Amino acid sequence: MGDIEQGQTTPLVSVVIPILNEVRTIDDTLTSVLGQTYRQIEVLAVDGMSDDGTIARLQAWAERDARVRILPNPRKAIPVALNIALEAAEGLFLVRVDAHSTIPDDYVERMVAHLQGGEVAGVGAKKTALGGPPNGQAIAAALGSPFGVGGSAYHYATEPTETDHIPFGAYRIDLARQLGGWDERLVANEDFEFDVRVRKAGGKLFLDPSVEVLWKCRSRIRDLAAQYRRYGRGKADVAFLHPSEVRLRHLAPPVAVAAITASAVLVPWVPILLPIVGGGYIVAVLGLSMPIGRKLENRDKLRVPAALAAMQLAWGWGMWEGLARIARHGFRLPVPSETDASRWGSPDWHVESDIESDPDSGTGPHGRP
Questions:
Q1: How far apart are CA 49 and CA 22, in angstroms?
Q2: Do 34 and 151 share a structural domain?
Q3: Alpha carbon of 277 to those of 88, 95, 114, 255: distances in Å?
Q4: Which terminus of the chain is more exposed, N or C, with fewer CB under 10 A?
Q5: Nearest to 198 by CA among 213, 212, 180, 185
Q6: How many CA atoms lie within 13 A of 97 on its CB side?
């Protein structure tokens, strides 16, 4: 393996980057990854058949730095990409990096230090959204609020803590393989579902908010809505697999969608219901948006309610779609088709003994033979 052989004190780390059409951001991501103070890395760039010039950029990087390996992902989906990397990885640790994010130059070093301590099974950092025009500032503010993302500590935690979920996590590769990798039946939330299985296997997840990942979020409301619709479908899948992980905050968006839809259907019989329910929701969103947008410029403050409503309602609608999809398939999770990644919004480039194999499909825990 040349200059990336395992060292005695600096084990090889496999940095995994799922990629799909990231020509605008991949250079920044790879610059931050290859500039790490921890040099003993291999970079597994798993490309979902990009058609925007990303492949050419990856090839240029691979020619300049032998640590970069390009792996194809014909099925496009994120969990498939992660499993392809897991099979190819030669490192002791796996560090996932989003393809439109940048990491500090000591990121891998600090993740490895936590994992080498032996007390945690996975570790992650604080995730800070960066937004661009036209609506990115408002979207980033909504993403960083508990009203937009629920109780995810990695958005606003200030002290190191044990947590239930880490974004773009770092894990021991042998643990990931023991758990069967990431569940390929999921269209989203594959990272959370994997963390559920880590915890059920007795592992602890650790969040170090002193390490910050800068993540480029969506800049258009419609793209944000498509993203959160996909998240909602993924949450339905996770709720089906792990009912004990459902929290009251997860039920608020689908309940809101159901209430608004029902009041609209009942307009011919109870016309006053829609103004009450719909108006009440609008007032609630406006009220929640005020503290979220207080530090923004006036034009961005006005966009926060739209961002917040898009996240909540699309997520709730997606959860209903996900539940309906599960019911249509006889209360089983089907393996998504190759087009699911594009049908349900572009992926974010941005798992366990209790999930039994499907005897009818001939697949293992994560959807592979």
A1: 11
A2: yes
A3: 52, 45, 48, 12
A4: C
A5: 180
A6: 35
Residues in CB range of 4: below 8 A, 6 or more apart: 12, 40, 41, 42, 66, 67, 90
Q: Are residues 167 and 210 in the same domain?
A: yes
If one counts the domains in the chain, the total is 2
Is the domain of 82 the same as that of 45?
Answer: yes
pTM: 0.86
Residues 175 and 305 in one domain: no
Q: What pairing do the DSSP bridges indicate for beta strands 101-102 and 161-163?
A: unpaired
Q: Do 213 and 281 fall into the same domain?
A: no
Residues 32 and 144 in one domain: yes
Same domain, 195 and 243: no
Confidence class for position 151, pLDDT limits 50, 70, 90: low
Question: What does the pLDDT look like over 164-213, one tens digit per residue?
Answer: 999 889 999 999 999 999 999 998 999 999 999 999 999 999 999 999 99
Note whether 339 and 157 are within 8 A (CB): no
Secondary structure string (H, E, C) spanning the chain: CHHHCCCCCCCCEEEEEEECCCCCCHHHHHHHHHCCCCCCEEEEEEECCCCCCHHHHHHHHHHHCCCEEEEECCCCCHHHHHHHHHHHCCCCEEEECCCCEECCCCHHHHHHHHHHCCCCCEEEEEEEEECCCCCHHHHHHHHCCHHHHCCCHHHCCCCCEEECCCCCCEEEHHHHHHCCCCCCCCCCCHHHHHHHHHHHCCCCEEEEEEEEEEEECCCCHHHHHHHHHHHHHHHHHHHHHCHHHCCHHHHHHHHHHHHHHHHHHCCCCCCCHHHHHHHHHHHHHHHHHHHHCCCCCHHHHCCHHHHHHHHHHHHHHHHHHHHHHHHHCCCCCCCCCCCHHHHCCCCCCCCCCCCCCECCCCECCCCCC
